[in-house]
Amino acid sequence: MKKSILILSIAILHVLSLHLHNAAAQVQVDTDKMDLYFNTLFENNRFIGSVTILSGDEVVFNKAYGKADESGVPVSPESIYRIGSIAKTYTAVMIMQLIEQGEITLDTRLAEFFPELPNADKITIEQLLRHKSGLYNFTNLPEYMEYYTEPKTREELIEIFIEAGTSFDAGEGTEYSNTAFVTLGFIIEDVTGKPFAEAFEGMIAEPLGLKRTYVGDGIDTSTGEVESFKYTEGNWQLQPQTDMSIPGAAGAVVANSYETAYFFRALFDGKLLSNESLAKMQTFDGPFGLGLIQFPFNEKTAYGHNGGIDGFLSTAAIFTDQDITFSVLANGVNYNFNNILVGLLSITFGEEFEIPEFVDREPITLSGEELKLYSGTYSSPQFPLDITVFHEDGKLKAQATGQGAFELTILDHQTMTVEAAGIEMVFEEKEDGRYKAFNFSQGGLSLRFRLEEE
Q: In sequence order, which ranges of 328-439 are alpha helices (DSSP H)?
């Protein structure tokens, strides 16, 4: 749940129903190639998880690859995953439902519920939804890693939020904030008078008939829930579990792949909100709508969200013009997740795509002059820290603002990794003797950094 891909553009809602009902026949998915692609990823220890593609209401692809738990029981299309920050879309829908009921408004101030939080008299519900509240993202705190596997009460979390403070005044910036969405969950509890899990069941799961989507607790493999893994030293290693009392409305939802895709299809088909409310969710002020992110693929645009928690990675979204909905839920990834999605979408839309061939690569060594090509300070508008790349003692290193430096393993002239941390940096846009940008991926985070002007 720590961070999300941030990508952009806006669709026109008043033609949405026409698109959803008439476009499905326009896309014919090569399911054999799709299956070959994900089997190739699985067989080369790059991916374990489940994949669903809907064309309209029709399920055109719904398969699973790999293992569900440490004993080796295989995953299935029914397997239930932690979906991380995709939960934020569900939470946003619940907030919009309460707005439709007249319980709150987008302009309702946080102070009506939590006056003790910093800037509560200035922060609105809309700013919480858009990551413009300024409430510091508590999962970025160094001490988060000391307690994330232990339960926290609501009161303890509020105290953490107070101590974390703010990054900027309400509405004056944008910073991804799990703090904001956990707080929205508390607001839902106060307005409905129910625990978040119970409110979720009544507002989301029951209306859509979802049987394998709910607010999770500890992973119970006997019910079809899967564990997560990281590929280390030639094996998939079991990962620790975040205690779900901590992410709450920001990332505690679990689901299978089909029901995750179906949720987005149902949302955009008017089964949960009015057209007016859905239109508001699709308005973007900066990189975020109200609980939605945009994913461009060539000239097409999808609406959805992604997430990452404890080694689980996930993305689900709908291309409204083509009426194609997809969901990828992984409990283990050893490959650039964005590349996995590009392959899926290329095959889905019949675009040229070659199934990758995987070979183990030995690191290479570059000269001091060559290392200079990467040096500089890079920044991303969707990430609060800069990353400085430099060379020292014949090694290429990187350092995020306020953090320790780490050595980069050089696999080729563009691809650098930190295997222990699951980091990959792919350098691009070589101009005037140096690289101008790199794509950074780690867990569920995938961002583009550009070289700052000197």
A: 337-348, 368-371
| pLDDT score recorded for residue 444 | 52
Residue 54 burial by Cβ neighbours in a 10 Å radius (0-12, 13-18, 19+): buried
DSSP tally for the chain: helices H, then strands E: 13, 20
Cα distance between residue 256 and residue 254, in whole Å:
7
Domains of the chain are 1-357 (3.40.710.10), 368-451 (2.40.128.50)
Q: Are residues 334 and 47 in contact, defined by beta-carbon separation less than 8 angstroms?
A: yes
Six-digit token string for 331: 């409990």
Nearest to 243 by CA among 157, 327, 316: 157
Average pLDDT over residues 88-96: 98
- In SS3 terms, 297-349 reads as ECCEEEEEEEEEECCEEEEEEEECCCCEEEEEEEEEECCCHHHHHHHHHHHHC
What are the tokens at 28? 């014919």
Distance of alpha carbon 396 from alpha carbon 1, whole angstroms: 29
pLDDT digits (tens, 9 = 90+) for 312-335: 999 999 999 999 999 999 999 988
pLDDT tens-digit profile of 21-40?
444 446 899 999 999 999 99
- Of all residues in the chain, the percent with pLDDT exceeding 90 is 80
> Considering Cα of 221, then 224, then 230, then 233, what sign does the dihedral take?
positive
97: pLDDT strictly greater than 60:
yes
Evaluate if residue 414 carries a pLDDT over 80: yes
Are 414 and 283 in contact by the 8 Å Cβ rule? The answer is no
Give first-to-last CA distance, the chain, whole Å.
Answer: 34
